[in-house]
Amino acid sequence: MTIKNIAEYMAELGQAARSASAKMAASETALKNQALLGTASAIEEMTEELITANQADLAAGRDKGLSPAMLDRLELTPARIAGMIEGLKQVAALPDPVGNITDLDYRPSGIQIGKMRVPLGVIGIIYESRPNVTIEAASLCLKSGNAVILRGGSEAIHSNTALAKCIQSGLKASGLPESAVQVVATTDRDAVHQLITMPQYVDVIVPRGGKGLIERITNDARVPVIKHLDGNCHVFIDAEADAEKAVNIAFNAKTRRYGVCNAMETLLVDEQRASELLPVLAGRYAEKGVALRGCDKTRAIIECEAATEQDWYEEYVAPILAVKVVADMDEAIAHINKYGSHHTDAIVTENYTKARRFLREVDSSSVMVNASTAFADGFEYGLGAEIGISTDKIHARGPVGLIGLTSQKYVVLGDGQVREP
Amino acid sequence: MTIKNIAEYMAELGQAARSASAKMAASETALKNQALLGTASAIEEMTEELITANQADLAAGRDKGLSPAMLDRLELTPARIAGMIEGLKQVAALPDPVGNITDLDYRPSGIQIGKMRVPLGVIGIIYESRPNVTIEAASLCLKSGNAVILRGGSEAIHSNTALAKCIQSGLKASGLPESAVQVVATTDRDAVHQLITMPQYVDVIVPRGGKGLIERITNDARVPVIKHLDGNCHVFIDAEADAEKAVNIAFNAKTRRYGVCNAMETLLVDEQRASELLPVLAGRYAEKGVALRGCDKTRAIIECEAATEQDWYEEYVAPILAVKVVADMDEAIAHINKYGSHHTDAIVTENYTKARRFLREVDSSSVMVNASTAFADGFEYGLGAEIGISTDKIHARGPVGLIGLTSQKYVVLGDGQVREP
């Protein structure tokens, strides 16, 4: 689709979203679930059409010389289509957070005051060329009572347009406004700029993708951004760690999957345990082909490449691990708060007081004791699907699910009370 | 104080605040309270010095031709000094929200997961020439475990510098880092620009002041802003309102105080009750000298000036009230959501279903049934002192007290769990 005036086009999407958001905020849970299940049915019925559209994207991608990894992410395989359908059903099954009222307490004036959970309004999602994100993001925004404008990577434009039709069909069947979910129908880059600079229509932006994309968006946005920068996660093996727990957790946190944001990137070991545990761990990592980069003290115990200052900052997203021997927990906490990305960090210890201090003093969205960082995930936390893992400090930290896409307003119930002076 | 390189100076403040914030986050409640009470004692002891500094500001203000209203806000009267001391004692008496853990539930994997309340980090406060705000803001940030950089209006520079000394003295006595509270010591406007564009040192900006100031800051900031734009509050008298409650609430919401953000600015009346209630209300308002501006239907019932389209948007902050007769609750809700500022809006009704719908569908930070909008206030809500009333959608809506200056991180307690596969 060629659009002459991008600013006008985006403002139209914005107006339509704003108007739909009021209806979405007031809509019944049953209707929202009907729209989600209707979308799932539409995807089933339109599978061939989806695959044809996706083939067009893949062909264009090959012509453009996309990397095999990018082509892989772009592809809608039967398994991924089944995954989208299953995801829609799961979100329909989640409890609806909207309208929930808590803490309804009486005050001395006689008014009763509580908090009601409400949608944020209009959410803009900007993501790379992974068409399944279109359905994931749309379903979470829809269930949380928000309207959403989706801007996927340009390489996925045909797939996303076909998926948008499935969503429209689900919305239509339920009687909810079709403009509650809109996919930007142009690949013009100016559309992103417009989307992130129209606070009159968009309440919050959620970028999903590489650090570069997210930094650019955060820098240019005139709307609050819920962002996930990087996942430089740590495991600290304390002097009083249980050896078996330490080895299992340090092994799992690194090797369960390399390409995920909750993977450990730096291992910190108390110097009292380094000579006992590092050789065991080095053996385990070697079996998996994990390359180690150690500080001087580490290299005095096991053989590995030397870590540079830059390694402590690195999110490898690969079978590489930085290893540092520290004097005590204070050094570990200082290291994590300085070099880490405030994502997920764990201590392994049997010491009660140190566990308590670590939980309090490590400034990360998830802080763990005797558990693998791999648990940092919406499903494992019981939140259901997540739209991302926030490393921000305001609004939402950690996995952002339905609750993270809402906020709370105050409700006041009275019997005619007025305030004296 | 003349500072040559503002950017360098502000970066120094930022670094010092960032480093203090880690200590503040981990500090015990007792130390924070000691710092607050120590500041109160210092204000008592240094009252003469404070008044001398304030006299210098007032003299300069008079020379500059400040309006009597501005000079009034600038003045540190004995009552205001007593108010600051009392405020510090009250904040010390509030429960400490930091470290509070909720929802610590076991998951099927065996990990136990909950949320811990944590400070935001470093807060930048930008405000106009009201020196008492220095103490209010500092005390809330300190109690909530944050470090703060305060930038008050340039006309109050001597008063603020003197107050900063009192705070430093309180911090020093308690052993907390003195750079936990820093007052910007220059009136150079570039300091504001620096403060709002250094995300590496500042986590959130809270501007307090006129709409113009807040819009400028929001536009230029590279840091999240918790903002309070305007307070265009409504009372809607429904067809099924109790007449006495309706008149009392509409009268109180407008006339209790004119200069506050929770004052009603537009009264909406269902047409079924307009001819009965408007004459009664017009009489009450006339006694107080409130000037009415009505729609055509209003003017067919009572005599008043005609309201223009602009009146529906107006926050008068004065004894002026816009009055509109509406066909039903749908029109009232649509009017509030379109023209209002999402601050505080109330319905007067005896109808259960309409009360429920109004609470759900009005998109404001406080929504009330049968209570005066004048209750929208941190003390009335039981939150204690507030740093402002947020009309934002993300993070905090409504009165922002200690809780609004914190967020929640996840804590995970395990026994050696690893995640399969």
TrEMBL record, chains A, B:
Gene3D superfamilies named in the record: Aldehyde Dehydrogenase, Chain A, domain 1, Aldehyde Dehydrogenase, Chain A, domain 2
Pathway membership: Amino-acid biosynthesis; L-proline biosynthesis; L-glutamate 5-semialdehyde from L-glutamate: step 2/2
Annotated keywords: Amino-acid biosynthesis, Cytoplasm, NADP, Oxidoreductase, Proline biosynthesis
PROSITE patterns found in the cross-reference section: PROA
Primary site of residence: cytoplasm
Catalytic activity: L-glutamate 5-semialdehyde + phosphate + NADP(+) = L-glutamyl 5-phosphate + NADPH + H(+)
Coiled coil ranges: none
GO CC aspect terms: cytoplasm
EC number annotated for this UniProt entry: 1.2.1.41
Record bears the keyword Cytoplasm: yes
A molecular function GO annotation: glutamate-5-semialdehyde dehydrogenase activity
HAMAP family: ProA
UniProt protein name: Gamma-glutamyl phosphate reductase
Species: Reinekea marinisedimentorum
Encoding gene, per UniProt annotation: proA
